Amino acid sequence: AQSVAQPEDQVNVAEGNPLTVKCTYSVSGNPYLFWYVQYPNRGLQFLLKYITGDNLVKGSYGFEAEFNKSQTSFHLKKPSALVSDSALYFCAVRDNPTGGFKTIFGAGTRLFVKA
Amino acid sequence: DTEVTQTPKHLVMGMTNKKSLKCEQHMGHRAMYWYKQKAKKPPELMFVYSYEKLSINESVPSRFSPECPNSSLLNLHLHALQPEDSALYLCASSQTTGGSGQPQHFGDGTRLSIL
User: Fold this and answer.
1) In chain A, what residues touch B40 (CB-CB under 8 Å)?
2) Closest Cα partner for A25 from A9, A5, A8?
3) Strands (E), chain B
4) Residue B36's CB: how many other CB atoms inside 10 A?
5) Which ranges constitute the DSSP H helices of A3-104?
6) I need a labelling partner for A106 at 20 to 30 A (CA). Which of A27, A75, B5, B45 fits?
């Protein structure tokens, strides 16, 4: 079965500093990986995805993620954090892409960006 | 602004009440989902509809009854709920359930409290 792990419950970073939110995955076959963000009292918003191709994927709000097959990782990054980036971030994998029914979410990482 | 609209935003109901949650999207998506989310946890899949047919029921208790009247609407009928059913209920849609890693679009949810 497909799964993702987010090893950090919380990440703290100062505004203007680079941020990384970690995600590792376990899949059979080719991985279909996603990052979503959830702000307080809101639903999840899609940030970016990796399907195939370039290992560096660019997404919304200046976020990017690096797919590393040898390390089975898909870490979310941003060169310069903003206070408004403070939110809950979920890494996700699509289970059985050819059948395509389920999205498996990681436990989530809370990002705090301090001014 | 979210493209998936959920109503009501908040709902308080007693354990003997009957109520319904509504979800609407006009993006032409043919897959719609219901999730349950507890505080600071990832969303848990409840139901998946594909082309207006129920394709996945994640062993959800029968006090939750989904309905998909047409390709734009998704309802969740509630009856005789328990206090542990208090949560944020999220609706999502995607172009289809299969395909090349289509992201899901989420509504902002209905926050449900069972007295």
Assistant:
1) 88, 108, 110
2) A5
3) 4-7, 10-13, 18-25, 31-37, 44-50, 53-57, 64-70, 73-79, 87-94, 105-106, 110-114
4) 20
5) none
6) B5
Contact between chains at A108 and B41 (C-beta distance less than 8 A) = yes
**Closest chain B residue to A90, measured at CA:** B42
pLDDT tens-digit readout, B70-86: 999 999 999 999 999 99
Extract the tokens encoding B92: 């999502």
Which of chain B's residues have a Cβ under 8 Å away from the Cβ of A95?
none
Mean of per-residue pLDDT scores for chain B: 92
The tokens of A32 are what? Answer: 């279909």
Note whether A101 contacts B96, CB cutoff 8 Å. Answer: no
Distance CA B46, CA B115 (A): 22
pLDDT interval class at A98 (50, 70, 90): very low
Q: CB distance B106–A45 less than 8 Å? A: yes
Specify the pairing of strand B10-13 against strand B110-114.
Answer: parallel
SS3 call for B96: coil
